Structures are given as structure tokens and as C-alpha cells.
Model the fold of this input.
Amino acid sequence: MIQPSSVGIVAPQSAHFDQPLTLRSGGVLPAYDLVYETYGTLNADRNNAVLVCHALSGSHHVAGCYADAPDNIGWWDNLVGPGKPLDTRRYFVIGVNNLGGCHGTTGPRSINPATGKRWGAGFPFVTVEDWVEAQARLADRLGIERFAAVLGGSLGGMQAISWSLQYPERVANVVAVASAPMLTAQNIAFNEVARQAILTDPEFHGGNYYEHGVVPARGLKLARMLGHITYLSDDSLGEKFGRSLRHGKAMYNYGVEFEIESYLRYQGDKFAGHFDANTYLLTTKALDYFDPAFDHDGNLAAALAKSSADFLIVSFTTDWRFAPARSREIVYALLHNRRKVSYAEIESTAGHDSFLLDDTHYHAVLSSYFKRMKV
Amino acid sequence: MIQPSSVGIVAPQSAHFDQPLTLRSGGVLPAYDLVYETYGTLNADRNNAVLVCHALSGSHHVAGCYADAPDNIGWWDNLVGPGKPLDTRRYFVIGVNNLGGCHGTTGPRSINPATGKRWGAGFPFVTVEDWVEAQARLADRLGIERFAAVLGGSLGGMQAISWSLQYPERVANVVAVASAPMLTAQNIAFNEVARQAILTDPEFHGGNYYEHGVVPARGLKLARMLGHITYLSDDSLGEKFGRSLRHGKAMYNYGVEFEIESYLRYQGDKFAGHFDANTYLLTTKALDYFDPAFDHDGNLAAALAKSSADFLIVSFTTDWRFAPARSREIVYALLHNRRKVSYAEIESTAGHDSFLLDDTHYHAVLSSYFKRMKV
Done:
């Protein structure tokens, strides 16, 4: 076996679709582009494709790096590559930026052909189901009738689950990591604070800030700072930062006193410098809306009856955003339907962000699951 | 025994102090007023006084109501009154608005006599220790040499603990409910997001918004919305709101969709309509700074060695802001010093806010503790 290594230099591709897409919200996208990357090779039977769905701040750039930006490494590079748990010598892996995104796929920052201006606030609301629909069209384009697996963490896991309900015949395995069947009131509450931070930023301009040459950076920074707290555990923040004081003592001002403040401000500024606020808003709404049990009187087992895939569900002990109990809800609902489901609850101190980290036990679970899959 | 009842109509009093108060921050308040209320009667031995310390958004108005505002009921009215756990037939209870506050005590909204303008950003940073110092001067004024008890929830509990360290001879019992010995990195992180929301509000004007005839309502609203999430448990939000939709279905807009959003916006607006943003900032900083173990290399037991009071420590199972583990840290440190300490961990679904609620078990614990006290 070779040493695990990177997929190396990759390049995003773009697919244009001019068949209108009617969205759950009632809106219609007359045409759109999806930006995606692929790693590995589609085999002759076209049965080794794995779709990786991204979460709130992710993108199509799952693995490898760019020739002109060697430090821009894919967000799940530790998982995807030759000899890695999702082994690109065996699988053909696809990452795609979702509709409404800000990494090349058509979104609020794109030009609306009907007006010649950026979509801005006019971009229609998108849902997890809409993303799956668009991903399915990309799969058609790539000649993939059935995925060996659809895989995602957090919001990405919701897409993987939705695949098994919207296209049960097109997905053999669903891998949902650090995910949940739907948000709780607390989850929605955090999203709502983040949204209000953006919506009430005077530079939001009702979502049409592009035309004013500004961005609602203050709001987006606050949203990201808040998000970060929920991605990490109390324990991991304690280990990393504790009560460390920047100056060794209280300075009695509103500058950085505790190192945790510096960290959050830095993360917030970095994010606000490149991410699109409208995409952030739309994505938190997609999170809020996702609820496969809604049309089944809240009965998740009834909702998941449509699925026919095999499932791997993974959670992390200190994840309080999507706690293990939420993953177990999925597991129980699947078992109720006598689906094949594997479940791993990984000991980790890192909270929700664990799904992005290179944890030995976690990666061993994914590795053995992918090794066992038939392609 | 009479039926528990209200202390009835109360009236705030004000005490002026013109002996300068040097603060931990190095700042000096040349003179100040403390607004306070009292319930019950100080006995001849002057040994039945109980000081109630308030938390972030509290005030001196602990119990009863005002003649001209019968609906303005004290924040701990369920606890304090004739026949209630803190029985005003037996105890002389004092509530005082802390320095830097916005309910009458000298704070950023007060006029700085040196300039003739509101203090605003010029108001010095205040700490838990400064509050205790000011409270001690009020006790002197009222002829109270030693408190039967100093009592508080959350940040109020920190003041009660600090009393036992700053004036061990002046407090017979400390009752700290839903409190913590100091904030964690996660606690500070939430405070920091709240502060950044206020500080970056364009209407904050560097803290001198009074002069501009505006208030940073957007920032204060965000801060309060976020705070509220941390005061309640995931469970209680789930029970109260779940995923209830205002319109029974997704509307695909940024208005209120889920009832939890409506609740948070309402709470945020209500708070922003009356609370002072500078007070909010100062109070979150006082929370961050409080750390009795700081001067003892982080050794809480060493820090608490100074105390000589008896202690009652109470926590609530679903409080994740100041979790039971934080209360246990206090208990262990006290036991290490062979102090008399009672500890109750109350089963509650209501999270941090439990300390304000009328829980039977919780109130029974407080009631029996106060009944047992010698006065």
C-alpha cells in the first residue's frame, strides 16, 4: 500500500445548465452554472462515483490544491486522496459548489441575465432538496446513473440523506457525519442571530450591497464568530485558549484581552473578507428548512421509509451543535425501516468541527466502510 | 403559617457617596449614587440583613411592585416576601443596583459632574470587587456590620463569593446559585460576540451615542438575542418552540418563519428599548475579569482559603452557561478548606434561567437553608 498522499494539483470545472430549475420556494432559476471538481477516475461500469456534499462554508474544492495557489488545500483533503479513507485510486470523487454559493456556482453574487445586474436579494431561496436536484443533473451530465456513495458532514450530511429520499435508486450508500435529521429550536435560534447580524448591518442594503460597492462585513463577521463558538466544544476552547490573557493582565479596554477574543475576531475578519453575505443567509435558511419528517407529521421513520441505501452515520461525543443524540435519531428511524445502518460515535474533544479533522478512529471507520463497499 | 405573598408596594431609595472610590481598573469615581430597595425590617441586633446581588440585566428591584407601576414586579419576587423562601418577616433584604448600571445607580448614562455631560465611554471599567466595595459602603450606611447572607444567581453569585473573600468577617452565609468561579473560554467568547455587536453598531459612536440622540439598538438587540439562547436549554427551547412555524409552512423570506425567531426578536427589541448599551458592555467585562484564582496561580482552593462563611451552592442540570460542574468546582475548593458547604444540583429543564423560576425543589432547598440560619 502506498503512503496516503494528496490528489495533487486540481482544477475546478464548470457545467452550464439551461433547463430551468423550479425550486421548492416556487422560484425558478432559468439557467445556472455548477462549479465542481473531480478526483480519481470513473470506472468502465460507472459505479465508483462518490459525491461529497459541502456544509455551510464549504465549496467544491474538497481535495488537492491549485497550480497557482498551492496553499489553497481542499477542505476534506485529509479524507480524500490516494491511500486515504476515501481512496481516489478506487473511487471517482466529485465535489460541487451548491446553488446560491459564492465559489463560482450561480448565486447571489452572479449576474442575473434578466437584469444584467447581480442577483443580490433577488436570488431565489434554495433548499437542500434543490441542491440535490441540481447535483442529480450534474450526475446525469457526467454519466453517473447511481452513486456508490453520497457523503457529507453537517449540512452536507443532510444532503446525503435527502439524496436517499429524492433518488433512492441512484445512491447505494449514504454517509452522514456530524449531521442531524433537522435543526432544533436552538439551532434555528443561533442561525437567526447570525442572520439578524447581517440583515441589520447598514451596509447590507436589503441584500443589494454589491451595487453600493460595500459588503456587510460587520454582520458577516459577527455571524462567523458566533458560528465558530458552536463548531467548537467548551472543552476544546478551554484547552486551546482557556483564560489566557494577551497582555498577562487585564487592560480594562475593549481591545483584545483574552486570546479567545483574538481568535474569534481573526476568524470573523478572514471569513467576512471573502464569503458572500447573501450566500450565508440563504444557506442558514436551507439548514432551517430541511426537515424530511415535515410531510410525515414529524415521523422521521415514516420519512426515511423511501430510502433504500445502506447508511453509515457518524457522530462526535463533544459535538453540541449536532449532538450524537441527533445522529441516533437517524439511526433509530433507519432501523425501524430495517435498513442496513452502521453507526459510530467517536470520542473527540473537538466538537462539531471534528468531522473536518484527522482523527484516527474516525478515519478508520470511514476507511473500512469505503473498503467494504462493492464497486 | 401565612400564605406566601408579595412584599407589596415598594419604593427605591438612593444613597449618595462622596468619598472617592478607587476601582480595580485604576479609575476613580469621585462620587456616586447607589439606588437600592429594602424589604422587611432590620432587627435590633442588626444581624438579619440579606444582600441580594443582581446579574447582568437585573437591578435593585428584587421584589414587590411600584405604586405607579403595579405590573413592574421585582425579578426575584417569587423568592423574596412574607412566607417565601427568603422570608421578609424574618429577614431584612436589600437589593442594590450596581455601579455602572442603568437603573438609577451612577453609570455611563449618568452625568459626569466634571464635564457636565453623560459619562458614556468615559465611565471607568468596574469589576465584581468594585461592586462589593460599593455594597459594603452601603451596608455601613445602613448600619449593617455583618450580613446574615449575601445571595445571588449567576453574576450575582460571583459577587456573593467575592464578599466572602473581600470581607470574610462581614458575611455569615454565601448563597451562590447557577454561578461559576470564573468564566470559561466559551463564556468569554459569547460575551465577546455580544460586545462586538454593540461596538460595531454605527450608532454606538464610540460609546457616546447619547450626544447623538441615538442608541446602538441593533447591536444591543443582537447581544440580547444571543444571551437568551445561552440562558435557556436546548430542551426548554425545544419544548416551548420546537420547529413551530408561524404560518404553518415555509414562507421563504427573512420575516418570522419559526416561532423561536419571533421570541428572540421580541426579547431583543424589548431589551434594546430600555437597557443601556454601555452598561451591557461594562457588565460583560466584569464577568470576564472575575477570577478569584488569578492571584493564586489558578488554584481556586487557595483563593477561597480566605473565606470563613458557610456556603450554599446550587446548580441546575440543564444549565450549560454555568453548568453544574462549575458549581462543583466551588464546592470542592471549599471542602478543601474544610468550610461548611451545602450543595444542591436541581433537576430542571429550563437551563440557566432556572435560577429565576419558581421550582419546588429549588425553592425548598433555599427555604430550608434560610430557616436553618441563625439570626
User: Anything to note?
Assistant: The first helix of chain A runs from residue 128 to 141. Chain A touches chain B through 54 residues (CB under 8 Å). Residues 99 and 106 of chain A are 6 Å apart (CA to CA).
